[in-house]
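Researcher: Structure prediction, please.
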Amino acid sequence: MKTPEYESGSPWYQSSIRAMLRRAVPSGLSAGCLSAATAAAASADTSGSPLAPINAVTHCLWPQRALHERGFSLRHTVTGFAIHQAAAIFWATMFEALVDRMAGPAPSRRPGATALAAAATVASAYVVDYKVVPERLTPGFEAHLSRRSLANVYVALGAGLLAAALLRRPDR
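Model: Predicted structure follows.
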């Protein structure tokens, strides 16, 4: 049963959505940077090209070139990183909604629930990325990373989300 405070037009509901989105941006940026760094490190170890997985993200825009681009380019590296960060913020929005429900306003006081929210979010991200969307919309990392390295990228995404929530001051 809906209560009045959960109605979409109520001031409480609107302010809670805004607060969740304000938390999702820094959470997503930290998780996106950590997962991109993990992908870059894994690719540098195996192929010598740390930028290849980031460039591969742009295969949704430039399918002929993106998967073969190994060095820095504005077109592939900057755009790929921006797409990756936007996706991380998208997943951080889901994470923050789960944290609100599972851990409440002070996630550092319920680290187990917060970790569960992070795990549920990255599991959902993996399923959507590799089982739901068409191949052209996959992240592209899989073209340059082993399965283990790809799993580490998702672990890093979850760790970034978790760290951002646990380190956040309770009043934010």
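Model: Confidence is low (pLDDT under 50) at residues 1-5.
Researcher: Thanks, that helps.
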